[in-house]
Amino acid sequence: MADEPPDEDTLLRRYPWVVVRFACHFCRRGGDVRLAVLAAKFGADVTMGRLVGRFIAGCEWAPYNPTRKPQKYGMKCGGYCPDLRRRGPPDLPPSLSGLTLIEGGRRDMLPAEPAPLERRRRIGEADDGG
Ligand SMILES: [Zn+2]
């Protein structure tokens, strides 16, 4: 049970991570809120689903935002908590959270760091000055 990833029904008190992250598809809002802050505000027994709902309510694309006319096909806030239903801690930098396998043989391996973009000189452009 401890290995089960959290979902909308998970109580805040059972949320496995110190920071609760929110994000939105449309308004690009997002935020990291410390669990303790959320617990102080909403109580430790609030579900993650309710917290996501609170986040959505603050979004300009919220379906029930009173300043927006109801639109049958209007955009709705896509607010969500990216850490629900995922395994593994969210706070690790990408290099630690999982290794990316590069398919292919050794000769297809990419350098560890992306090569800096070089400005391409136009072919035919005078190179010898004037
Ligand atoms: Zn939104």
Task: Tell me briefly what this model is.
With 130 residues, this protein is an alpha+beta fold. It has helices spanning 35-42, 48-57, 94-97; strands at 19-23, 30-34.
Q: Main attributes?
A:
2 strands; alpha+beta; binds zinc ion; 130 residues; two-stranded antiparallel sheet; 3 helices
Question: What is the strand and helix layout of this fold?
Answer:
Layout: E1 19-23, E2 30-34, H1 35-42, H2 48-57, H3 94-97
Antiparallel strand pairs: 1-2
The structure holds zinc ion.
Give a written overview of the molecule.
The chain is an alpha+beta fold and 130 residues long. About 7% of the residues have low confidence. The longest helix is centred in the middle third of the chain and has 10 residues. The chain has a domain of 85 residues. The chain is extended, with a radius of gyration of 23 Å. The chain binds zinc ion (ZN). The site of zinc ion has 9 residues, from loops.
| Terminal CA distance | 75 Å
Quaternary structure classification = single chain
Strand arrangement within the widest β-sheet reads 1-2
* Helical run tally: 3
Query: What is the arithmetic mean of pLDDT?
Result: 74
